[in-house]
Specification:
The structure is a single chain. The chain is an all-alpha fold. Helices cover 65% and strands 0% of the residues. The chain contains five helices and no strands. Helix 1 crosses helix 3 and helix 2 crosses helix 4. The longest helix has 18 residues. The mean pLDDT is 92.
């Protein structure tokens, strides 16, 4: 299966998601948050740094839950602003 290259907008959305998760994590360790979400610290690291700009929905949902974020908050913060 060939994966379609991501658009610049998709990369930007992934970067916004990473920033939001990093900010929500605050002073909690990456390992602590990843364990609470049931994902690896490396997965969280890739999402936070934008190296995984399109993580699986259930990964994002688990991270949001462990950070006390709603899916609505994620949608608002990760959707591009209209110009």
């Amino acid at each position: 299966m060939v994966r379609t290259p991501l658009t610049p907008e998709e990369h930007e959305r992934g970067e916004r998601l990473g920033r939001l998760l990093r900010e929500a994590r605050g002073d909690r360790s990456m390992v602590e948050v990843a364990a609470a979400a049931g994902v690896s610290a490396e997965t969280l690291r890739k999402i936070e740094t934008g190296r995984a700009p399109t993580p699986a929905f259930f990964t994002v949902a688990a991270l949001a839950r462990s950070l006390g974020l709603s899916m609505d908050e994620l949608a608002v913060h990760c959707t591009p602003m209209a110009v």
